[in-house]
């Protein structure tokens, strides 16, 4: 944004104070353009007077590390789901055969739990565990979010669902670490079901 404050053409300019129990309190200078009669904080363009400072860079290092851990764990989950679908269906094709979304892969695996194959009972239990821990929602709330990567506003993101207005989600680094832990555990549980039925590669010690 321009350093001239407020920039020309804005109808309203005011200081907004935010107070949430258990989370950081902060203030923002808000500009409302004349052309926008309805505003939604989840869609605001967030920046800092003078640009990012050292605290912002430090905050981003930690935030990006936590987000990256979740994205990697979620990628392992989806890859393992694809392997399981191919193994359970005895399909010799590659990943192009199972180029599906998380939801579609989950449905395909659920359908395999009714086939009577030896590992079906364990698969059903693992899928139920993933559902009970709301893992797809945890992953989506990280991957499909616009993060407020500025120090002092808490671990905050704007989340936009299909054909809905946005919501603002405020959390903690501890919650992100738990998301990563659970997604990693889910990937391990699914991978264990493959046994020796998928190629493996191990790096040397």
Task: Give the strand order, joined by hyphens, for the main sheet.
Answer: 3-4-5
Number of helical stretches of at least 4 residues: 5
Return the average pLDDT rounded to an integer: 88
Return the string of H and E elements: EEHHHHEEEH
Looking at how many chains there are and whether they match, the oligomeric state comes to single chain
Q: Report how far apart the termini are.
A: 51 Å
Uncertain segments of ≥5 residues (pLDDT<50)?
A: none
Structural class: alpha+beta
Say how many strands there are: 5
Which range best describes the helical content: under 10%, 10-25%, 25-40%, 40-55%, 55-70% or over 70%? Answer: 40-55%
Concise synopsis of the structure shown:
With 205 residues, the protein is α+β, with helices and mostly antiparallel strands. The chain has helices spanning 54-88, 102-112, 120-132, 135-143, 173-192, and strands spanning 10-18, 26-33, 145-147, 155-159, 167-171.
Task: Please give a structural write-up.
The chain has 205 residues and is of the alpha+beta class. It has five helices and five strands, in the order ββααααβββα. The strands form two sheets. Strands 3-4-5 form a three-stranded antiparallel beta sheet. A two-stranded antiparallel ribbon has the order 1-2. A hairpin with a 7-residue loop joins strand 1 (10-18) and strand 2. Helix 1 (54-88) runs parallel beside helix 5. The mean pLDDT is 88.
Topology of this protein?
Blueprint: E1 10-18, E2 26-33, H1 54-88, H2 102-112, H3 120-132, H4 135-143, E3 145-147, E4 155-159, E5 167-171, H5 173-192
Antiparallel strand pairs: 1-2, 3-4, 4-5
Helix pairs in contact: 1-2, 1-5, 2-3, 3-5
